[in-house]
Amino acid sequence: MTVGSTVFGSGPPLLIAGPCSVEGLDMMLACARAAREAGAAMLRGGAFKPRTSPHSFQGLGVEGLRILSEVRAETGLPVVSEVLAVDQIETVLRHVDMVQVGARNMHNFPLLTELGRAGVPVLLKRGFMATVEEWILAAEYITHECNEDVVLCERGIRTFEHWTRNTFDVSAIPLARMKTGHPVIGDPCHAAGRRDLVAPLALAAIAAGADGVMLEIHPDPLRARSDGDQSLGFEEFAELARRLKAAASARA
Ligand code: PEP
Ligand code: MN
To answer: Which domain CATH number covers 149?
Structure first.
């Protein structure tokens, strides 16, 4: 399937990179340039953030979307960003090429149905309490409305392990690919919740046949307004991008 000129699911695995949250124009431009230089096919950045606590930074909202549009025009990179609610769809669609449904919203069936009707490419994250079957059924809410443009994203599930934020379910990647035929990508950052595990999990996703990997990056991860602990600095990111490319050619 294609998002603009970006092709998912055939050819080499794709890299999607960007900050957890859009924090401002300068940092977003810096992330986009780092992403492009590392060979990323797409830029990510949350404007509406589904935070566990209402006291945490909730994202810049529409201002964040405007920044994404500006950065897209400047760098030519297609953009994916999250939509939290049905009443945001129209606004979000004015600024992005692909819409992300986050883990916390995977069971939001009215949202999935509306995105199906909107006919927009959807990046559907696996809920952290969802079985692979439930995740696939969530995707079917979108395809049921004749929208086949769904990319699935494994981002870790909740287990008894507490040294990682979630447990990266590598088996879900080939399983979901076999069962659906949709492209499946891995998100090692939200799975690990810690920077030092991002590279091995990203490489595991590629080895397991993922159609891409999504990485959180930040010009200064220690100062990120969300998910700094799991975000890569630009140098570390560039190095991992090189290793992922090598792993992808070894797989081919
Ligand atoms: C994100 O991509 O920043 C995000 C909130 O992810 P998830 O929905 O997987 O927690
Ligand atoms: Mn995040």
So the answer is: 3.20.20.70
Picking from 194, 223, 246, the residue whose alpha carbon sits closest to that of residue 39 is 246
What are 72-125's pLDDT values in tens digits?
A: 999 999 999 999 999 999 999 999 999 999 999 999 999 999 999 999 999 999
- Cα–Cα distance measured from residue 25 to residue 140, given in angstroms and rounded to the nearest whole number: 36
From the CA of 214, the nearest ligand is 1
Residue 2 located in a structural domain: no
Residue to probe by mutation, ligand 1, list 155, 169, 215, most atoms within 8 Å of CB: 155
219 Cα to the center of ligand 2, angstroms:
15
For the entire predicted model, the pTM comes to 0.98
Q: Which ligand has an atom closest to residue 123 CA?
A: 1
Q: What angle do CA 217, 221, 224 make, to 5 degrees?
A: 100
- Condensed to tens digits (0 to 9), the pLDDT of residues 180-229 reads 999 999 999 999 999 999 999 999 999 999 999 999 999 999 999 999 99
Tell me which residue range forms the domain holding 145: 14-49+57-251
